[in-house]
Write a structure and sequence with these properties.
The protein is mainly β and about 120 residues long. It has a single domain (about 1-95), classed as Nucleic acid-binding proteins (OB fold (Dihydrolipoamide Acetyltransferase, E2P), Beta Barrel), CATH 2.40.50. It is built from no helices and six strands. It has strands at about 1-10, 15, 20-30, 35-45, 60-70, 80-90. Strands 1, 2, 3, 4, 5 and 6 form a six-stranded antiparallel sheet that branches. The protein is globular, with a radius of gyration of 26 Å. The two termini are about 50 Å apart.
Length: about 120
């Protein structure tokens, strides 16, 4: 899956255990600009360093997996958790000019000179 949005916050890397680390960041996703959504993603392990190349305000494409877990607490209550686990970030490419904003093609310079009818080339 992927989504395009603007980075709002990037948090410090958290060392959850001696062998596991994660880093979270928040994207403003504005499918409807009147009601933007604020989505928190996480990157884990060696992917955490990808965030070093970004800062709040950058427009990015986030490639991610939707993860879900089931957990039973000591009292036997079952709980479910979801996470958005990003695995790649790309800077959003600036959009090119709209077709109506593009310059017109160059004007033709008149008809081509008449060729030799003995020409054996097919073009």
């Amino acid at each position: 899956m992927n989504i395009t949005g603007k980075i709002l916050e990037i948090f410090d890397t958290q060392n959850v255990t001696d062998t596991f680390k994660k880093r979270e960041f928040v994207i403003e996703y504005a499918d409807n600009s009147q009601y933007p959504q604020f989505l928190k993603f996480e990157m884990v392990q060696d992917r955490c360093d990808q965030l070093n190349d970004y800062q709040p305000g950058d427009e990015v494409v986030v490639h991610f997996d939707l993860r879900g877990r089931k957990w039973t607490d000591p009292q036997g209550n079952v709980k479910y958790f979801n996470s958005l686990q990003a695995w790649r970030l790309e800077k959003q490419q600036a959009a090119g000019p709209a077709p109506e904003d593009m310059p017109p093609p160059p004007a033709e310079e008149g008809p081509l000179p008449a060729g030799n009818d003995n020409d054996d080339l097919p073009f």
